[in-house]
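Good morning C.,

I know you're traveling, so I'll keep this short. The sequence:
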Amino acid sequence: MAALGRKLQSRGHEIVFIGVPDIEPVVRAADLDFVPFCENEYPPGSTAKSWGGLAKLQGLDVVRYTVRELTPGLIKASLAHLPGKIAETGVNALVLDTAYRFLELVPMHLRLPYVQIWNILHFDLSGSTPVALYSWPHETTPEALARNVEGLQIFREYREALLPIARAYAERNGLKLDWNNPGATVSKLAVITQTPREFDFPIPHLPPQFHYAGPFQDNQGREPVPFPWEKLTDKPLVYASMGTLVNGLENVYRTILEAVGEFPQMQVVLSVGRNIGPGDLGPIPSNAIVVSIAPQIELLKRAALCITHAGLNTTLEALTEGVPMVAIPIGYDQPGVAARIAYHGVGEFVELGNLTVRHLSELIVKVTANPSYHDKAGWFQKVLAETRGLDVAADIIEQALVTLES
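The tokens, ready to paste straight into the viewer:
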């Protein structure tokens, strides 16, 4: 979202980023104006504490914990405070992250134009393809389509957990909505996903306002990350990371370290995040560098392989650099991203329940020894460079708002 804001700002628009206090350093590093909201409910330091409960969860438990314990409070506070911040800043239009489900009720109430952004892998609620929370393959048999529809139950759980909050806001502000329609609050102007069309499963019918873009990356505006560059050798580099949220499963890191230790001809950089310490992982192979946080894009530029949780941002960054992957999806949209990694031949994935040192080692050999994975990742690198996702998204947003004004 910061990269998208910076792109719009470069085109002469005045951008203000509204968020909870803990994201201020990220926004300031992107050289954007920042306005905090929900300061009383989410004071500095509260995000890490509240979201830390996710670190050791996996699968649908990640989604259910988020839906039941985290999202309701955030949405309730956001609905309460966003109208005031809009009045305070003089905002004329909003670009909303879809992770803030039902926050679009605010611009609907205030009669402001709004565009929605899928930073994570978008959810296909038609049943034509598996919803992103599952690693099911894309199939079109009647059995597969029935399975896809059944899998939408988890989305209904998510929506129903927030409906009382959304209904209360709508009733207070005179909004009449068909709550039986999941798309009742979706932007009529534009819904943009940073997932490239080429990386998605084929979805036969999409709403007219839905747009594919491409990675929202500009390799700028990030806080500097120290790294011992002098320790890198000329061996092929493997970059490994399990992301920033659901990244507290020590056994996953131990398995990665033990597996890569079997390849002394490679060098590995493992980023473990802030939920566990490198010292908690036992012996570190001589060919591995373990850090809490790493300069990811810079390392991917040098990497021959990325071992990833299949978070969409990391996956798209790897593809932008033409790096094939071995994915270990943990939760959220990661299973769906992992399924697409395999579907498009840019890597392989292993379910967490099937993760063993032997299995992971076999996948490392498979992906690094077969040039087809590297070639297909290189094809995506070329396509994404030509697509220019940030420009596509900015064009769509500008066109939507200009059309509305006219």
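Safe travels,
E.
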